[in-house]
Amino acid sequence: MDDLFPPFAPDANEPRPRRFKPVPFRMIAPNMITLMALCLGLTAIRLAFEGKFEPAVIAIVAAAFLDGIDGRVARMLKGTSRFGAELDSLADFVNFGCAPALILYGFALKELKSVGWIVALIFAIAMALRLARFNAMLDDPNRPAWKKDFFVGMPAPAGALTVMLPLYLHFLGLPLERWAAPVVLGYMLCIALLVVSTVPTFSGKTVGKRVPREAVLPIFLVGVAAFGLLISFPFEAMVALAIGYLVTLPIGAAQYRRRAKAEARAAATLAPPDDRDPGGSERDRAVDS
């Protein structure tokens, strides 16, 4: 009987089974925040199908908040990765492209039937194109450092929160009349065009890296006041933020043009004389002759 089950001794030369390298938690934490934001966006779509537009809008606002902190958490923990960047773009398309389009379609655009659905499609596709362009520009090595202060076109979270302005106004008591659907359609189309446009918008990525010591306490007070207003008067605050953001778009574009002109003047000053005045050598030859 002992011969039927001989003892097995593994060969010492046999390669060991492959073991996966453990992943640090700092690489997982930012992606978990992104996935939570994605869950909120998908839940907002479900709530819109059920006609619960107010909690659907709150879910999109919460997803935008999480989207604003996941990248900062990744940089703070030194957990940035290509996987996280791609996951963030896919989540942004669902949260800020598909979800607002479906919410507004169920809210007002369905009254216009196929025309309303076409505009909802245009907004979602515009958001996808904007995110694809943003990812492509990340790999541009020739982009000046100061351009990091600006986005090309309206960013995805701002586009989603701004396009839902008609919903905020409705929650504050603005009646939904028969003329509301065409107005919402035109407004949504304008936001979609701003999303895919090349209009420079202020990003604010470099704001707050260094805060003067005397400004710390006022910033705390302003932050607490803003948070209190958002909690106590959420839709009034969202209306003010959406309108304020739209008003500041020309200011950001003007500041971008001013900095671009300053860079062009600096480059012309540092250029060699032959590059600054192509006709200078011809005039010199004419004088010599």
TrEMBL record:
It is found in: Endomembrane system. One of its GO terms (biological process) is phospholipid biosynthetic process. Residues 273-289 have a biased composition (Basic and acidic residues). It is an enzyme of class 2 (transferase). Keywords: Lipid biosynthesis, Lipid metabolism, Membrane, Phospholipid biosynthesis, Phospholipid metabolism, Transferase, Transmembrane, Transmembrane helix. Its EC number is 2.7.8.8. GO terms for molecular function: CDP-diacylglycerol-serine O-phosphatidyltransferase activity. It is a multi-pass membrane protein. InterPro entries: CDP-alcohol_PTase-I (IPR050324), CDP-diaglyc--ser_O-PTrfase (IPR004533), CDP-OH_P_trans (IPR000462), CDP-OH_PTrfase_TM_dom (IPR043130), CDP_ALCOHOL_P_TRANSF_CS (IPR048254). Residues 265-289 are annotated as: Disordered. Signal peptide: none annotated. It catalyses: a CDP-1,2-diacyl-sn-glycerol + L-serine = a 1,2-diacyl-sn-glycero-3-phospho-L-serine + CMP + H(+). The chain crosses the membrane at residues 28-47, 53-69, 90-108, 114-132, 152-173, 179-203, 215-233. Pfam families: CDP-OH_P_transf (PF01066). One of its GO terms (cellular component) is endomembrane system. Gene3D superfamilies: 1.20.120.1760. It comes from the Bacteria. NCBIfam families: pssA. Belongs to the CDP-alcohol phosphatidyltransferase class-I family. This is CDP-diacylglycerol--serine O-phosphatidyltransferase.
